[in-house]
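User: Let's play a game. I give you a shape written as C-alpha cells, and you guess the letters that built it. Ready? Here's round one.
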C-alpha cells in the first residue's frame, strides 16, 4: 500500500535528482536510490526497517547530502520497489539478498558509513561482521535479532499480530516517539500500520522467523569498526532483554545511547536530530582513525 507520506517522500528524491539503480540478487531484483552528495565524508548507506521503504529516509538524506559524497538507500527484498517473491521470505533469504546488494554496490567503493534501523540494523550488523573491510563506521538504531531468554521468537512476534484499528493504535503508540505519538496523529499512523502489518509479504516474513534468526554474541563482540547503537527510551516495540543483549555484548569501545525522545524509527520521527547524530559520530570517529576525508572513490 502506497500512502500519502510514501508519495511525498518519493517526490523529494525525484526533485533532487536521485537515480534508481537495480541489483540482481539471487532472490530477485533490488531497488536502490543513489543520490550524489557534496561533502567530504565517505559514502553513506541507509537501510530501513520492516514494512518501510527507502524513500522514508528523505528527511535524513536532505540533512546529510551536503556532508557525504554519496548516499545509497536500498529497498529491502519484498519492500518498496524491490522484487516481491511469491513464497514467504525467510530470515536467511532476506540477509543473503542484503549481502548481495551491498557487495554489488560497494565493489570498488571506499569503506562506507552503514546505518540500519530495526530489521535494517540486524542486516547491517551481520554485514559489518561478515565484511568489516567494507564498513568504515556502523550506526544502528533498535536493531532486530537481540537474543531472548524468557520467551521464544514466536512469543515475541505475537506483538506484531495486528488485525483491528485499536490494535494498530496501540502498536503505533509503542512504536513512535515525539509528536507522532500523540492523538490524533496516532490514529492516522495506525491506518498505515494496519495495512503494512497485514501485507502478505510482511506477514509471511514475520511468520518465517524463529530462534535461529537471533544474533550470536560473536556478531557483536567481533565488530572492529567504530560503532554507535541508538535505542530510544520511547521504543516500546523492543523487549528489555533484547536491549540487554546488545549492552552486554557490544565491543568495549562501542557507544550505546538512549535518546529520550526516540521511538523505534527516528529516521521518520526525528530525521534532523538523527542526521546530526550520525554526522557528529562519523566526523569524530573517522578523523580520529586518520581516514582521509578527501580521498576519491570509483563509481
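Assistant: Ready! My guess for every position:
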Amino acid at each position: 500500500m502506497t500512502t500519502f507520506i510514501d508519495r511525498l517522500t518519493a517526490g523529494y528524491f525525484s526533485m533532487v535528482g536521485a537515480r534508481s539503480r537495480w541489483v540482481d540478487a539471487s532472490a530477485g531484483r533490488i531497488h536502490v536510490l543513489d543520490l550524489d552528495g557534496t561533502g567530504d565524508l565517505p559514502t553513506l548507506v541507509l537501510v530501513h526497517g520492516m514494512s518501510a521503504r527507502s524513500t522514508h529516509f528523505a528527511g535524513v538524506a536532505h540533512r546529510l547530502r551536503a556532508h557525504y559524497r554519496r548516499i545509497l538507500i536500498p529497498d529491502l527484498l519484498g519492500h518498496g520497489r524491490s522484487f516481491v517473491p511469491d513464497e514467504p521470505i525467510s530470515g536467511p533469504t532476506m540477509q543473503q539478498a542484503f549481502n548481495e546488494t551491498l557487495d554489488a554496490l560497494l565493489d570498488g567503493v571506499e569503506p562506507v558509513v552503514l546505518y540500519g534501523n530495526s530489521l535494517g540494523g540486524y542486516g547491517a550488523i551481520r554485514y559489518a561482521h561478515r565484511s568489516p573491510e567494507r564498513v568504515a563506521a556502523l550506526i544502528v538504531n533498535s536493531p532486530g535479532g537481540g537474543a531472548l531468554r524468557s520467551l521464544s521468537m514466536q512469543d515475541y512476534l505475537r506483538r506484531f499480530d495486528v488485525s483491528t484499528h485499536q490494535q494498530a493504535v496501540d502498536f503505533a503508540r509503542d512504536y513512535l516517539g515525539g509528536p507522532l505519538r500523540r492523538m490524533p496523529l496516532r490514529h492516522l499512523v495506525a491506518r498505515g500500520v494496519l495495512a503494512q502489518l497485514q501485507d502478505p509479504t510482511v506477514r509471511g516474513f514475520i511468520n518465517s522467523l524463529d530462534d535461529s534468526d537471533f544474533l550470536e554474541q560473536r556478531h557483536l563482540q567481533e565488530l572492529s569498526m567504530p560503532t554507535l547503537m541508538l535505542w530510544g527510551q520511547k521504543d516500546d516495540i523492543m523487549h528489555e532483554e533484547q536491549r540487554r543483549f546488545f549492552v552486554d555484548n557490544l565491543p568495549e569501545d562501542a557507544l550505546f545511547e538512549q535518546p529520550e525522545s526516540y521511538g523505534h524509527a527516528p529516521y521518520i520521527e526525528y530525521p534532523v536530530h538523527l542526521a546530526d547524530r550520525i554526522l557528529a559520530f562519523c566526523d569524530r570517529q573517522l578523523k580520529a582513525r586518520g581516514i582521509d576525508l578527501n580521498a576519491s572513490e570509483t563509481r
